[in-house]
Amino acid sequence: MIKKFALGAMAALVLAAGCTTTDPYSGERTPNRTANAAIIGAIGGAAAGTLAGGDDRRNAAVGAAVGAIAGAGVGAYMDAQERKLREQMRNSGVGVTRTAENEITLNLPSDITFDVDRADIKPQFRTTLVDVARTLQEYPSTTVDVAGHADSTGPDDYNQRLSQRRADAVAQALIQNGVQPVRVVAVGFGESRPIADNATVAGRAQNRRVEIKLVGVTS
Predict the structure, then answer these.
(1) Long-range CB contacts for residues 115-123, cutoff 8 Å, separation at least 24
(2) Of the residues 43, 68, 97, 119, which has the maximum number of CB atoms within 10 A of its CB?
(3) At 139, which CATH number?
(4) How many CA atoms lie within 13 A of 154 on its CB side?
C-alpha cells in the first residue's frame, strides 16, 4: 500500500513538471494554473486529515520523491531552515515559529496576503511567497501543510469555503514557484481553529490567517 501511494504521488510530481504552457510568441514556458490546482486537489484528497506530516504513506511518498532526513539529523536540518526563513521573512509581516524539533510554522496574516472577502493573493505579497518557495526548494525533505483559517463573522459554510480557497491559492503559488506538489496539502478549517478571541476586532484579525506548517520527513 505504501509503495502504491508513493508511486502515485511521484506520478503527480512528474505530471506537475509537465504542467506548463508555452507562449507562441515569446516561447516562454509558464505554469498551467488549472493543472496545478488539480494536482493540489488530488494530493490533498490522498492525504486528507493527515496534516502535520502524520501519515506514513504521505511521508513515504515525499521521501521517495525528494529524500528523507536521517533521524538524528532532523534538528540541525530544521535549525538551518528556520534561520533561513527568519532571515527572509524579516519585516515581511510573516511570523516564523519553531513549534517542535521537526516542525516550523509560518503565520501569514490575512491583511498582508488577501483583500477583504477575497482569495486572490495581493500582488505585493507574491514576492514574499517566492522567497518562501526558494527556501522550501533548498530544504526539500519536509511536508508543506497549508491551512486556511477564518474568523467567526458570517456563515460557517461561507467561512469554510473562503479559507479553503485561500489555502489553495497559497499552495498553488508555492508550486508555481518550484515546490514539489507531492509535498503540499491545502486544507481550509474555516472558523474552527481560532487563536484569539473572536469577540474583539483585534482577535478576529488574528484569526483570519493562512499557516504553512513544515514538518521534517525522517528515514
Answers:
(1) 117/162, 119/162, 119/165, 119/166, 119/168, 119/169, 120/169, 121/169, 121/170, 121/173
(2) 43
(3) 3.30.1330.60
(4) 15
- Examine the pLDDT at 193 and tell me if it is beyond 90: yes
CA 197/CA 207 separation, integer angstroms: 8
* 106, 94 contact by CB (below 8 A): yes
Question: Total structural domains in the chain?
Answer: 1
Query: Which cell goes with 155?
Result: 456563515
Left (φ > 0), alpha (ψ -120 to 50) or beta: where does 48 sit?
beta
Written as nine digits, the cell of 90 is 524579516
| DSSP for 67-84, written as a single string | -PBPGGGHHHHHHHHHHH
* Matching residue, cell 463573522: 153
Picking from 192, 175, 216, 183, the residue whose alpha carbon sits closest to that of residue 44 is 183
Instruction: Please give the residue range of the domain that contains residue 99.
Output: 2-216
pLDDT digits (tens, 9 = 90+) for 18-62: 444 443 333 334 344 444 444 444 444 433 444 545 678 999 999
